Fold:
Amino acid sequence: MAVEEKWRGWASKEQRGAEEAGEKEPCVLLGQQLGEAGRFAYAALCGISLAWLFPEEGESAFRTEFIKGFVKWLGLPDAVLPAMTAFASGLGGEGTETFAQILLKDPIVKEKPLVITQDLLAFSLKDGYYDARARVLICHIMWLLRTPLEELEVLEESLLESLKEQKEEESETAEASRKKKERRKKLKRYLLIGLATVGGGTVIGLTGGLAAPLVAAGAATIIGSAGAAALGSTAGIAVMASLFGAAGAGLTGYKMKKRVGAIEEFEFLPLTEGKQLHITIAITGWLCTGKYGSFTAPWSSLLHSSEQYCLAWESKYLMELGNALDSLLNGFVNMMAQEALKFTVLSGIVTALTWPASLLTVANVIDNPWGVCLHRSAEVGKHLAHILLSRQQGRRPVTLIGFSLGARVIYFCLQEMAQEKDSEGIIEDVVFLGAPVEGESKYWKAITKVVSGRIINGFCRGDWLLRFVYRTSSVKINVAGLQPVDLDDRRMVNMDLSSVVNGHLDYMKQMDTILRAVGVKTKECRLEEKGSTGLFSPPAEKSQQGAGSEAQEEQNLLQEGD
Structure:
């Protein structure tokens, strides 16, 4: 009861603050404040976007349930449901720009461009979980309305930081920090007052810092069926644990209790100390003595999410492989041989006869550890799949990034997930860098079932080392790390990294440059870029372009006002 009273007192204080500031108190859902035409266009835009993003037959139930709940959420009459269902089934795509323009002209959207993002986020979280497909939809709608995706991250962070009592440490200049705080305060007012006072939906509870002992830290209801009255309830705490994983510890709480098959080591190491509504898992491809002797070393610049993990797996074997690679390149192959190999590979005439005899004589140095790690990476990938399917990470979108054998771990993880039920809505984006896996499109089709956002294949045509380890194959193998994956799917994005990757070892040594090249957020680009689309790439259809110039203008004015 003490916690509940604290919430009521805090909410009343915020409401008084809003009234004193002359702001209209949002006693109804943000989306329901729109005019009738605006709400119809809003729902239609979501329906059409769902059909474009997830047209597969297996996603039919998701599209139908989403749009049915959304029509009710917006307070639209039941009579419009057949039309919205038709939009969600693939009809009316040519009306995208028209609906976007109608929505942008709504007075509420003109005044507060972020209202749509806020409303969609609230709807997506109302049942206590954050489906990756819902986040991809939010990003898509934001693109159509020309709202910077950065704003979604700010909204998500505001939800998590809403009840923190400790003073925020200054990590930026005093002026930038002040503006950021003012912006978050404004967002809190929209989210916490507007959303906590409405009915419908299950409780979402958040602790101040979302650390392990949730109950001890005390929960605070953000969105509830009876508003603030549900704060601290058993249901609220249960949903909180569901959203953020067992006891709020997330993936760091997982330890492999016993050996699983051939796997000897499997553990998640934190790369950041924050908590977020979406998480990133990075997977290293090999280790070597010195600077890159740890799993976390290659990812020092990664900042795609406030909550990031690195998978530690089979370090003994990865270290053997890394040292073998190092010995092969530094000890046995001189500069002239490397240049000859690059020329040969780029010429596309590699055969068993074209490899230098000096290299073939020491091939066993790499062949043995490479073969062992190929097998173990597949097993680790399958194990990772079942960890994610069990929602150890909570019910939040996950982005997977890996290079070399780490990318292979991801490949087998996704293949395993695709064979299981209820595997959709977990994975948002995946990034493969120099992946030593089959590159034929037919093997990648299954992956689209479990990835909601983008499947990025970063490859280097001149990676002679990757080509060398496949030289003994009895049949021609198209390796994904060497060429594009020709998959006709809006998720598939091939990126030629030949201009930044000179060889396979560069995937570790040039990681910062590579991450930026493929659109993954790093610490440096977080400071430099604003409004970037990141991994989310806009659709190519002409009908979906050109909308939203007014929203961008309003957004700029809002930011200037901050």
About this structure: The first strand starts at residue 204 and ends at 206. Residues 164-190+231-244 form one domain. The beta strands are 204-206, 220-223, 266-270, 279-283, 308-313, 398-403, 427-433, 455-459, 492-496. Residues 364-389 form the longest helix (26 residues).
